[in-house]
Design brief:
By secondary structure, this protein is mostly beta strands. The protein has strands at 3-7, 10-13, 18-25, 33-39, 46-51, 58-60, 68-73, 78-83, 92-99, 115-116, 120-125.
């Protein structure tokens, strides 16, 4: 059974940094695209970033491009999201998820991800 466990969330001030981690078990980790999504109160879930199995390709939403960096360590079955220059609008629950598709068009679509973590709260105050 696949399990994804996020960690690293917290409460910070605007301009601070956080690094989220997501550790996977139960599947050949490097075979899958991994993504980060977030959901703020009263808003729909939105794509944040994704990374291919060996890390050769990444993609970001426009709202985080240049501030967030996604990476992975396949030896540790872990994907990371380094978040710099955090803004109050980054406040949300952040989820990692696994995508079995090789179609780049599917990597930004939440419904194409088959396993999800429980989420970790990030709160940014001004």
């Amino acid at each position: 059974q696949v399990q994804l466990v996020e960690s690293g969330g917290g409460s910070v001030q605007a301009g601070d940094s956080l690094r989220l981690s997501c550790t996977a078990s139960g599947s050949p980790f490097r075979s899958y695209v991994m993504g980060w999504f977030r959901q703020a109160p009263g808003k729909e879930r939105e794509f944040v970033a994704c990374i291919t199995g060996f890390g050769s390709h990444t993609a970001y939403s426009n709202s985080v491009k240049g501030r967030f960096t996604i990476s992975r360590d396949n030896a540790k079955n872990t994907v990371y999201l380094q978040m710099n220059s955090l803004k109050p609008e980054d406040t949300a629950i952040y989820y990692c998820a696994r995508n079995p598709s090789q179609d780049p068009g599917a990597w930004v679509v939440g419904d194409r991800y088959d396993y999800w973590g429980q989420g970790t709260q990030v709160t940014v105050s001004s």
